[in-house]
Design brief:
Pfam families: Fimbrial. InterPro entries: Adhesion_dom_fimbrial (IPR000259), Adhesion_dom_fimbrial_sf (IPR036937), Adhesion_dom_sf (IPR008966), Bact_Fimbrial_Adh_Pro (IPR050263). One of its GO terms (biological process) is cell adhesion involved in single-species biofilm formation. This is Fimbrial protein. By secondary structure, the chain is of the alpha+beta class. It has a single domain, classed as Fimbrial-type adhesion domain (Immunoglobulin-like). It is built from 3 helices and 10 strands; from the N terminus they run αβββαβββββαββ. The strands form 3 sheets. A 5-stranded antiparallel sheet has the order 1-4-9-7-6. The longest helix has 13 residues. The N and C termini lie close together (4 Å).
């Protein structure tokens, strides 16, 4: 099943014409070709992932020194994975796209008041270079392999300086949203 976002905008254009009608009878028949999956974020060789309900998860990276953020040390990173369950056998593809408030293209901005400055959060596939951070709010998406559909997509979240030499210590909190499309 492929989700098409443009549909909602087109429906909004049709409703004003209907509002002038005095009677409206609607017969709607739909065939569900495949159900989607339930996607969860799970701990995977990293800090505990907490499910706060309503599909909101938290992962806390322990306190880390600015020098570790600057050098891209493993202590400024945390591993987790996206896991799909309950998928229909008819689904052949799962795509994921990342959204969030960015500060430097691929890094998501700190939302903590009076917190760390010049620091952003990037998300990438585990074991890849920082140059592969996903670009939030972009048309870029990644496709899950067959193995990832069965066992999960291993990812890494990393704290990095947004500009060399600009990092300042303090509390860091950011929000990333994973959007899924199925075919």
């Amino acid at each position: 099943m492929k989700r098409i976002i443009i549909t909602s905008a087109l429906i909004g254009l049709v409703f004003p014409m209907v509002s002038t009608a005095t009677n409206l009878d609607v017969d709607f028949t739909a065939t569900v070709l495949a159900t989607t999956c339930t996607i969860a974020i799970e701990q995977d060789d990293g800090p505990v992932v907490t499910n706060g309900g309503n599909d909101e998860y938290s992962l806390i990276i322990p306190d880390v020194g600015l020098d570790k953020v600057v050098t891209g040390a493993p202590s400024a990173e945390a591993n987790f994975k996206l896991v799909a369950t309950g998928c229909s056998n008819e689904l052949s593809k799962i795509y994921t796209r990342l959204t969030g408030t960015t500060i430097s293209g691929k890094l998501i901005v700190n939302e903590a008041n009076a917190g760390a400055a010049g620091i952003g959060m990037g998300i990438k596939r585990r074991g890849t270079a920082d140059s592969t951070f996903f670009s939030p709010n972009n048309t870029d998406r990644f496709e899950w392999s067959n193995d990832e559909k069965s066992h999960g997509v291993p990812l890494t979240v990393a704290l990095r300086e947004t500009t060399v030499g600009s990092g300042r210590t303090g509390t860091f909190q950011a929000k990333a949203t994973f959007n899924f499309t199925y075919e």
